[in-house]
Design a protein that fits this description.
Strands 3, 4, 6, 7, 9 and 10 form a six-stranded antiparallel β-sheet that branches. Strands 12, 13, 15, 16, 17 and 20 form a six-stranded mixed β-sheet that branches. Strands 1-2-8-5 form a four-stranded antiparallel β-sheet. Strand 6 and strand 7 form a beta hairpin. The N terminus is likely disordered. The chain is built from three helices and 20 strands. Helix content is 9%, strand content 48%. The two termini are 21 Å apart. With 271 residues, the protein is mainly β.
Length: 271
């Protein structure tokens, strides 16, 4: 495992950078974004999508971007008639450049959103402030401000959004996961977590991402290996403000990325 102190320092710098986002810019910006209006479901909720187009050679990050990435932060506070938003992340790509790994997307990404209106049947005015990282030869923090009035009464799924939903990782049940355990032990800077998942292969070299399910906690890139029917990931967890670290296994989120598909596992048991 790489040195925790150096990796943590890089992570803190990335988090700090998001507090000073670059302006969304004009047409020269290497990323543009818009909302796709989607459709209305039988329960009154709506399926829409955020589409982002990146200039050639540029990429952006997944919700857990890896040691070298900047995590995206969504601000929906300017929206109207919006009770809640669920973000459905398509399976990302693992980038390995100059010995550093990051997780994200290039070219175009369509992120389906499930939105619940406060008043069903009434239009929803979406207003999103998205602080994110974008990368070419260098990585920079970036700000996107996007708004749209969502008032479609269509009930047929949009093929573009439906295709993006089909790229969302499998659930544990869909992937045939039979067990998911987490064991913790003290480390010099926080806690060492060893996650073990009993599951069929996701194809090729697998890569596990471990998310703590709580703010203020940095998690190192997992050392991942497979042994028979089990894939194991080992990471370091550090409370970035130096406070005592307590972790609830029910909130741990494990994602196994493989060549054929990805698997999203919510929670783990003592191991």
């Amino acid at each position: 495992m790489r040195k925790t102190t150096a990796s943590l320092a890089a992570a803190i710098l990335a988090i700090a950078a998001t507090a000073f986002p670059v302006s969304a810019g004009g047409p020269e910006a290497p990323i543009t974004a818009s909302f796709l209006p989607g459709w209305v479901r039988a329960d009154g909720s709506r399926v829409v999508a955020l589409r982002m187009d990146l200039a050639k050679g540029w990429k952006t990050y997944w919700r857990a971007p890896g040691d070298a990435g900047i995590p995206p932060q969504f601000d929906w506070s300017g929206s109207r008639n919006l009770a809640s938003v669920g973000v459905n992340w398509p399976t990302p790509v693992v980038f390995d450049e100059s010995g550093m790994r990051s997780i994200g997307y290039k070219d175009r990404v369509v992120i389906p959103l499930t939105i619940a209106p406060k008043t069903p049947g009434a239009p929803v005015s979406l207003s999103l402030g998205l602080d994110m990282g974008i990368c070419s030869d260098i990585c920079i923090p970036h700000r996107l401000d996007i708004s749209a009035r969502i008032d479609t009464d269509a009930t047929q799924p949009d093929p573009v959004i439906a295709a993006a939903l089909a790229q969302v990782p499998y659930s544990a049940r869909e992937a045939g996961v039979i067990s998911a355990t987490c064991a913790f032990s003290p480390s010099p800077d926080g806690l060492r977590i060893e996650a073990r998942v009993g599951m069929p292969s996701a194809g090729g070299e697998e890569f596990m991402v471990i998310e703590p399910g709580q703010g203020g906690v940095w998690v190192s890139e997992a050392d991942t290996r497979r042994n028979g029917g089990e894939v194991t990931g080992v990471s370091e967890m550090v409370q970035i403000h130096g406070e005592p670290l307590a972790v609830d296994r029910r909130n741990i989120r494990l994602t196994v990325l493989g060549r054929n598909h990805a698997v999203d596992i919510r929670g783990c048991t003592p191991g």
